Amino acid sequence: MNLANRITLIRIFLVPIIMVLLLINVDLKPLTYDDFSITWNQILAALVFIVAASTDGLDGYIARKNKIVTNLGKLLDPLADKLLVAAVLISLVEMAKLDAWIAIVIISREFAVTGLRQIALLEGSVLAASTWGKWKTAVQITMIIALLLNNFPFAFLDFPFDLISSYAAALITVYSGIDYFVKNKNLIPVA
């Protein structure tokens, strides 16, 4: 259990904290300004999510820099990413901040690519994250933060950044999934 794996575990342990913050109603007066309103729970959940999402790059960097990449890390890191994103997306759907179809598209892509990665592992190879996969992650994290913060600061400009980023995340997610399958079609057994 090296430092990189410990950081990954912290990301996993932050998931239930974010969910509690999002789904348990604490009767504190929300912050309001004109038509904008946000609960303290959402602010705290967004901060914890930002910390958790930040650890994604950090654990990989530490593992590569210190040459401590392990099989456990290769298993835990993508699992932690998927748990974090899926839990928050489901919570956002429950809070009526995200259309369910967008959450389903994103989560389905994650399952499909994870399956493809498992097939690759059985064949003795590892599928590295693609450029589109990295863009997908960045756009998803941006979308989630915008939704958690009720479109702050764009709400003051009447600019639907949260909605636009949701559609962009769905589109890039689908494209990156297709990209993985097209580039690795040799791994898919055809009867």
Automatic annotation (TrEMBL):
Segments passing through the bilayer: 7-26, 38-62, 83-107, 139-157, 163-182
This protein's UniProt keywords: Lipid biosynthesis, Lipid metabolism, Membrane, Phospholipid biosynthesis, Phospholipid metabolism, Transferase, Transmembrane, Transmembrane helix
Origin: domain of life: Bacteria
Subcellular location: Membrane
Pathway assignment: Phospholipid metabolism; phosphatidylglycerol biosynthesis; phosphatidylglycerol from CDP-diacylglycerol: step 1/2; Lipid metabolism
Molecular-function annotations in GO: CDP-diacylglycerol-glycerol-3-phosphate 3-phosphatidyltransferase activity
Pfam families linked to this entry: CDP-OH_P_transf
Membrane topology label: Multi-pass membrane protein
PROSITE patterns: CDP_ALCOHOL_P_TRANSF (PS00379)
E.C. code: 2.7.8.5
UniProt entry tagged with the keyword RNA-binding: no
InterPro entries cross-referenced by the UniProt entry: CDP-alcohol_PTase-I, CDP-OH_P_trans, CDP-OH_PTrfase_TM_dom, CDP_ALCOHOL_P_TRANSF_CS, Phosphatidylglycerol_P_synth
Catalytic reaction list: a CDP-1,2-diacyl-sn-glycerol + sn-glycerol 3-phosphate = a 1,2-diacyl-sn-glycero-3-phospho-(1'-sn-glycero-3'-phosphate) + CMP + H(+)
Signal peptide (from-to): none
Annotated family: Belongs to the CDP-alcohol phosphatidyltransferase class-I family.
The protein's role, per its UniProt record: This protein catalyzes the committed step to the synthesis of the acidic phospholipids.
Protein name per the record: CDP-diacylglycerol--glycerol-3-phosphate 3-phosphatidyltransferase
UniProt gene name: pgsA
